[in-house]
Amino acid sequence: MAKIGVFVCHCGENIASMVDTGRLASTISDHPGVAVASEYKYFCSDPGQETVKKAIRENGLTGVVVAACSPRMHEQTFRKACAEAGLNPYMLELANIREQCSWVHTDKEQATEKAIEITRSLVEKVKRNNDLKPISVPVTRRAMVIGGGVAGIQAAIDIASAGREVVLVEREPSIGGHMAQLSETFPTLDCSQCILTPRMVEAIQHPNITVMTYSEVEEVDGYIGNFTVKIRQKARYVNMETCTGCGDCIQKCPVKKIPSDFECGLGNRTAIYTPFAQAVPNVPVIDRDRCTYFKNGKCKICQKTCQINSIDFEQQDRIETIEVGAIVVATGFQIQNTAMYGEYGYGRYKDVITGLHFERLASASGPTAGKIRRPSDGKEPEKIVFIQCAGSRDAAKGVKYCSKICCMYTAKHAMLYAHKVHHGETQIFYMDIRAAGKGYDEFTRRAIEEDEAGYVRGRVSKVFEENGKLIVRGVDTLLGRPVEVVADMVVLATAMVPQPDAKDFAKRIGIGYDEYGFYNEAHLKLRPVETATAGIYLCGACQSPKDIPDSVAQASAAAAKVLGLFSKEQLEREPVIASVSDSTCAGCWGCVTACPYNAIDRRDITDRNGNVIKRVASVNPGLCQGCGTCVTFCRSNSIDLAGFTEKQIFAEVMAL
Amino acid sequence: MGLQEQYRKEAAELLSSGEVKLVIGYGEGTTADRRRPVFVRSAELVSRLVLDASGVANLSAYLVPEGLLSDGKKVAVFLKPDGVRSINILAAEAQLDPGQVVILGFDIEGGQPTPLPGRKASDYAPLIESLKGSGLSPELQAEADRLEQMGAAERFEYWKEQFSKCIKCYACRQVCPMCYCRRCIVDVNQPQWINTSSHTLGNFEWNIIRAFHLAGRCVACGGCDRSCPVNIPLRLINHRMAKEALDTFGHYAGESADQKPVLATFRQDDPETFIL
Questions:
Q1: Which residues of B are less than 8 Å from A650 in CB distance?
Q2: Is A81 inside a domain boundary?
Q3: Which residues of chain A register pLDDT less than 70?
Q4: Which residue in A62, A243, A450, A546 has its CB near the most CB atoms, within 10 A?
Q5: pTM reported for the whole predicted model
């Protein structure tokens, strides 16, 4: 005979303000099988949990329903409480009357009715729950970090310094990411290279870190603690082991006029190149599409120049398969191509540039050695107009979100310009200044008060060229009148957007993403560095636009999560796994194909003489993740999922 | 010599040489224009085989009963192109080995059976490719178009009326080559997802589940339509599902013996139009 305890939580006002919890408790107490029903302000609190435990012990409950929040929130909490009171933790169900009821309704009467229905349906389910035991699986205590920008580097160093192996995968020839391109960094104005390059060197020299540059993750199989990753190491045509990075080959390469991506096209590179002088590893790659030898079959000057014979034109892409227990995704961002604003003339006028171009101009290692020179004629600009939100916060043409860093870097640009060109003037068109962060507002104030950055509140409607000058037409909304500024250069604060292949990559490794392609965290507030896929973590701007401090903080947080996972040799897994009924399985193998975890195999059933009578599908409990895809696929209804059996679900539905 | 004579002769040769253990074909029915399946196991009996324009049933369904092919011996069967597609699907779903099936292929053109030369399912690949996306008969197409024009509510009323006629005889299931499960979902009663009594709700449940189970698998042989004693135009539902599979995922049921099931596979470029 079932003895079910129902515990209705107020969640402060969250539930109680929209659901009549008293009525819910009294109605459900009359439901067959319900032994006790009570309500309380916070069942997740210590006294709340004690109430549940006491009720289990005193009434000999066989099942518990907590009518409260989403199971994602507190299922573990109450499972633990049940276990402490001697009840199998899988005899607990959470009836979600918060996210799926009180939060989304406005009519208390109807919301209460719905809460009763939800709770009753879970009572019917829990009556059919079975005692389950968690499954133990081994953990491969090696992590992979995808993306070698500042976030990825930080995560890798943190994990490695705690004594675990890390494979850091970067698709560019060097680690460093966007931060390596920056000049000085807000709000302290330390030189980006000066703080980043030591970290890059630390990463590559760390005994626990294997850095794989010019490599891309092709495939991720497996599950938390046990991932198998295929990585394509693209052919560099330079022997990594022997190359000393002397740079002779780069000096002698005859193809010199290739616009450099690293310099945002403001400088050139050769066909055999390192993206920048401080590249890590300091081993060049040959750009196959631009190399004279690969195009015409003649040249090989680099090979002749190299004194230690490190050039290898025969090198092929290599696929490496590695086993890891956790994955940190730190794939970063791109800046939006601002060509969609025809009125700003980006792409048409050479002196209309993006913030990243400006970083290269201001960088001591940049194409102008840190002197601010306009791209068209190399002259020093006397007046620069900055346009903020050139893409961000523009639902019509750009992206809806705020890119978060532009207010700060624009202030920084104005400051750097003032420091480098003392008589220079700036005008910054802005919507509002968002400077929330440690030392951030002080920084923008400093730009305005000490470095005389000229802020104009308003939007720009048009930029056009006249007599070698850029005419910027806009509006000053504080004065309520149109303005026209004659400038030598215009800098657009372009939006941060996901990598162009972000969605494809998410599908390849099995994580979720939002409408833009930024990767989804498991819970924005409580699980910000985990993805919904166990064992895969996030950090940096692949999750949302972020500045360096936030990226690094998140990277260390992700590393802490990985180390937590690696703190045990075995991992306890939920026993929610599928099983196949041998007698009814038709052997169509649809489930084998459908299973995203390759957890289903074919199994022979033999008679006592060893003759095969039948072949049926068979679930490997170590691999099964309990997603239920096979259950829904099976036409003969031969697969069932522990914890969510057909009988349980049916009872749940029929109780509505 | 007509095709019937030619295939009787070929069947006799196949049987007497021991190449096949059984020939499945059409035989005399209860009326002049009806055919029923005949199972010929000796060369002397090939005269029972009849092949004319009334040979419309998809005989591939008779290959799947448990044990028929488990001895590894071959069986010859009269098949139209739709039947060959069924063989491909059954092979893809591991229900038979296409190497065990000798096809006596034909099609019906201008009221006459015409021969198709392929004896193996794989011989039909170019023909099947050319049939890809071919539609219904003009009358059925007109009815399908009429349904497409309707609003959702009106269309629901249409099917409600059609399904209200269903008597749950399961003739559609019995005749269908794709319904080879040893235990059909409708026979599961713990829990009983599908109401067995023939009222509209239960009828809806049954017919919608069957339509889903045939998505990406139906070859439009029309067996369910013909066997339905209350004339529910079941082919229209299955045709609509087939169209969806083709338009959305480029899946044409039964193209080859190693085709993956459309509802069990995922490609990165699959359209996600259904995700709101």
A1: 191-193
A2: yes
A3: none
A4: A546
A5: 0.72
Out of A69, A95, A127, a domain closes at A127
- Residue B1 banded pLDDT, cuts 50, 70, 90: low
| pLDDT value of position B134 | 75
Contacts of A647 in chain B (CB under 8 A): 190-191
Q: What is the 3-state secondary structure (H, E, C) of A253-287?
A: CCCCCEECCCCCCCCEECCEECCCCCCCCCCCEEC
> Could you tell me if B121 and B87 are in contact, meaning their C-beta atoms sit under 8 angstroms apart?
yes
Q: What is the pLDDT of residue A256?
A: 93
Contact A635 B180 (CB under 8 A): no
Q: Where does residue B3 fall: left (phi above 0), alpha (psi -120 to 50 degrees), or beta otherwise?
A: alpha
8 A C-beta contact, residue A616 and residue A592? no
Shortest CA gap B128–chain A (Å): 23
Inter-chain contact A635–B185, Cβ cutoff 8 Å?
yes
Are residue A76 and residue A175 in the same domain, yes or no?
no
- Whole domain around residue A119: which residue ranges? 4-127
Claim to verify: residue A209 and residue A327 sit in the same structural domain? yes
CA distances to B79, B90, B195, B216, B227 from B186, rounded to whole Å, are 29, 21, 8, 20, 19
What CATH number is given to the structural domain containing A122?
A: 3.40.50
- Rounded to the nearest angstrom, the gap between the alpha carbon of residue A53 and the centroid of all alpha carbons in its chain is 39
Domain count, chain A: 5
What stretches of B52-95 show up as alpha helix (H) in DSSP?
81-92
Using the beta-carbon criterion (under 8 Å), do B191 and A647 form an inter-chain contact?
Answer: yes
A281: cis peptide before it, omega within 30°? yes
CB < 8 Å to B266, chain A? 596
- Say how far apart CA A182 and CA B238 lie, in whole Å: 60
Give the neighbor-by-neighbor strand order of the sheet with A425-430: A352-354, A489-494, A383-390, A425-430, A454-457
Rg for chain A (alpha carbons), in Å?
Answer: 30
